[in-house]
Amino acid sequence: MRFLLYDRVLEATKGESMVAVKHVSLTEDHLAAGYAGRRVLSGSLLLESMAQVAGWLVHLSTDFTVSAFLCIIDRAEIVGELPPGRAMRVEAHMLSLSKRWAQLSCDAYDEATPVARIARLNYVLQDIHDPAEVAAEENRFRYYSGWPLDRIRAVQTGTVTP
Questions:
Q1: CA 16/CA 117 separation, integer angstroms
Q2: Apex CA 24: angle with CA 72 and CA 49, to 5°?
Q3: Is 106 in contact with 90 (CB distance < 8 Å)?
Q4: How far apart are CA 100 and CA 84, in angstroms?
Q5: What is the 3-state composition of the chain as percent helix, strand, coil, each rounded to the nearest 5?
Q6: What is the pTM assigned to this prediction?
Q7: What is the percent of the chain with per-residue pLDDT over 70, rounded to a whole number?
């Protein structure tokens, strides 16, 4: 991924949920010109942030043994704005996970106020067989989440509700 649109993963449960935070700052290039005449995080970047967090939940839930390709975003709604100086909390929830696909939902909040929701994100999964690639994915998550490897490996597994 070229742009990381969340700052830190706060918590995660394999197969269940992941919570991350994105701080909106005026120093971000895409806010310089504004969006729709205002300096707020655009809807497309908001949804991209949510999709990134959901994708990492898939990777973590499969112990980094798959590549996840986003194929469907269904019933996405932008219901608020995020101006600079605010922090967005992104909550991804696993709806179902199989060998070939994953289905998640995602919500974004400015404190307790809803900003966006996605009823369904579908990811097609492709196995990663090379142990070096699996290790590279785990290391990428370590870097992108801000978590040390021992914390990643200690994440508990939750129950996936179909």
A1: 17
A2: 15
A3: yes
A4: 39
A5: 25, 40, 35
A6: 0.89
A7: 87
Nearest in space to 141 (alpha carbons), one of 28, 13, 53 = 53
Q: Which amino acid is at 7?
A: D
Encode pLDDT of 72-124 as tens digits: 999 999 998 877 778 899 999 999 999 999 999 999 999 889 999 999 999 99
Instruction: Confirm if 45 and 108 have CB atoms less than 8 A apart.
Output: no
Closest CA to 3 of 66, 52, 38: 52
CA distances for 89 relative to 8, 24, 94, 109, angstroms: 10, 11, 17, 5
DSSP per residue, 113-143: EEEEEEEEEEEEEEE---HHHHHHHHHHHHH
146-162: per-residue pLDDT in tens?
Answer: 899 999 999 988 754 43
Cα(96)–Cα(146) distance, integer angstroms: 26
Q: Which residue has the tokens 């990643």?
A: 152
